[in-house]
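Run: sequence + 2-deoxy-2-amino glucitol-6-phosphate -> complex structure.
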Amino acid sequence: MCGITGYIGEKAATDILVDGLKRLEYRGYDSCGVAGITPKHGLYLKRVSGRVDALDAIIAKDPLRKGVIGIGHTRWATHGVPSEDNAHPHTDCDNQVVIVHNGIIENYLEIKEKLLKTGHKFKSETDTEIVVHLIEEKIKSLNKTGKSGDGDLLEPVFFEAVRRAIEELRGSFAMTILWAKCPNMLLAARQHSPLVIGLGDGENFIASDVSAFLKHTKKAVFLNDGEMAVVKKDSVKYFNFKGNKVEHASVTIQWDSTMAEKGGYKHFMLKEIHEQPESVENTLRGRLLPLKGDILQQEINLPSELIRNIKGVQIIACGTAYHAGMVGRYVFENFGLPASVDFASEFSDRAKIINKDIFIIAVSQSGETADTLYAVREAKASGAKVLAITNTLGSTLTREADFVLYTHCGPEIGVASTKAFIGQMAAMYVLAIHFAVIRGNIFDADARKYVNELLKIPRLIEATLANEGVISDVADHFAKSEHFLFIARHINFPIALEGALKIKEISYVHAEGYAAGEMKHGPIAIIYKGMPVLAIATTSKMLSLVANNIEEAKARGAEVIAIVDEDSREFIKAPRYIVVPRTLEILSPLLTVIPLQLFAYFIALAKKCDIDKPRNLAKSVTVR
Ligand code: AGP
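>> structure
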């Protein structure tokens, strides 16, 4: 989610910053910018709505090229649509302090209100801009604005102003800040968002990841959460947010720059699978209050009256997003609200049965899927209100929907959706619990139980990912199979469908997902000796029935791979197990999907398929 670069040294900063941004574009590319200090023009800034190439072209002969210190940013919009005004860097009122930021400031509205009262003027809709004004405020209150030229004396003021501003921030951030009056230093800070310092000879670098500076240095220091760095051309000093010094040893990076863009993973898909703990965190962040068991609605502004008055929910989506919608349906129903789900391409003709009593939830990673957009228009024409669950700010869907809930998963590059899917499911839980609380369908204590368990999910996903070796071995064993079957019941049935879809997409092999109880009504006939059958058999009220279905498959020669948790394992007899941590039954899809994504990945890897760009597919399907 967004790429940051920073440079201080003796070379032309802008060339280095722009080159670094090009390497970070995989993190987001809807707008970008650079700022620096030039000997003649002081603080100087250029931004564009669009890609880094466009920025590079407009600053080709710019005075900005002369500076030896600067910061840069390529953006994946989270607050404020993609536009030049919302592009980073952002400046304070006097255009003296400038910032680039990655992450989400949760309490930005509160802070913005206070700053507006003290006369600050805002030029963008971003959460980031409040930080730079807050720093300006802190500099003023430290009461030493000084004159240009006495930069070294002002450095402690700059540091302390940024440190005090940080103390007021809630949320996640990686940021780099430049003050025109301190032309010999950059400040960097990290909290729940990556930031790394590159150590050169007479020059130093700051970046969201090492790919931005690997061609200049392989020596790096990864900041920890709660740390700041004072970066000068010949030195870097590290501090915690209390202002105490901390020590860091540098590491030597062995990757080349392509490997670095993928975080050392072989494919974006694998990287994105591993980013899922963070994806869930980002979707939940600021929306769930663990102690009150309440859900913040700041961002989507859904009127409680609307939530109370609707008679049902209709979810529409395509592909993987449709599977998230299926999970959503079970969750809404579990909390007492009738819900149905339809493929957007099938729904359009049925939209006439919709009226204002039915609340539409359209799910789309890209927000540009033609089938989904068309279905939304049809539903709106029938008088329904539409909420979009999407990952993409400023997308067409966000403009057409009445309300938007962003998943904040960051750009998904792999065509096969993984981290966006988990974000869509997390968003469904947020909404369904919130609706249940507002409609009085759930006791506060129960809501709190779900919320608290949801907040544990990122750590449980990490534990599931730690099983990668076992999953890779199982996948290698079955890599030559020509057919795969995935079975599950109830809320894990959509996950069986998703597991099959992942294999089809990236391995081009036939795979079916089936409701386990339906097998005996026909499809069981396709089972042959040695056919791999992946069965989701985690603890649930349906477990004994799933166990029966597994026995039925085994009796016809299937090679069952059972996805179990620690407690369900003893009830399931299978030749192979993949174990996931135990969670509440209703939340289990957030964990059971992980081994299926990895399984599909390793099958495709063994088949040497083009995993990130599978044949015949596009990341966003903009035709009907
Ligand atoms: C998922 O792996 C697919 N690439 C595809 O099914 C996708 O989920 C579908 O096309 C919907 O896309 P959207 O979420 O951007 O609307």
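>> summary
The longest strand covers residues 97-105. The domain at 467-624 is CATH 3.40.50.10490 (Rossmann fold).
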